[in-house]
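In response to reviewer comment 3 from the previous cycle, which asked for concrete evidence that the modeling workflow produces usable outputs, we include below a single protein chain processed end to end. The sequence was submitted unchanged, and the resulting structure tokens are shown without manual editing.
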Amino acid sequence: MLTRAILRRPGADFAAGLTAARLGTPDLTLMLAQHAAYADALRAVGLEIEVLDPLPGFPDAYFVEDVEVVVPELAVVTRPGAPSRLGEADAIVAALARYRPVARLSPPGTLDGGDVLVAGGAVFIGLSSRTNESGAAQLARLLEPHGYRSRTVPVASGLHLKSSVSWLGGDTLLVGERYADRPEVEGFRHLVVDADEEAACNTLLVNGTLLTPAGFPKTRRLLDRAGLPVIELDLTEARKMDGGLTCMSLRL
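The workflow returned the following structure tokens.
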């Protein structure tokens, strides 16, 4: 069972962050309201919430998962693939060091936490524009002594692996159509999301409850088949910044 989550409040400059989405101009007031609702949902499934202050000069810093990979045994400080985000990693170490031993990736490795999906003892590491072979190999070496088996997955589209693949517990993955037949994710049962609802692939399992983006009825019906409680959350503003449910918290 997870007991805690670390979040960072979006700053006034959050709309200046990196994005390839074409979903309109994000609204700060609405973003803050949606972020607060996200924190409330995590509390509702049993987590104690720690919300860090915005990080001046780093508009993407509220996507805290990209700068750390956390498992029960340790926390790994990443090296984000976007140079403008490198300073975010140092700013999260003090918060996590209270709960986990801390390890760090080193150059030339780059890795975003959004490319790392931990599914029990299996770890899928996306190779993307933000995560390279060196970063993936370093993370695999750090996790292997603790019993984790890592495999890399090329990310052909979307920002991160978890934009298209999520773990629903047990042997079940929620995947976009492009991943349904990929050999890198074999050995798991796949619930396949329609292409027009791919944003809903970024669904988060916390303590036996699934948190999922609102507005995707076909995916909601898929999730109901998984037999777990579901909480839908409005994420319109985070999606405008290429964000989603998994990237806005570190769950411990």
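Helices lie at 28-44, 86-97, 133-143, 217-225, 236-240. We consider this sufficient to address the reviewer's concern, and the full set will be provided in the supplementary archive.
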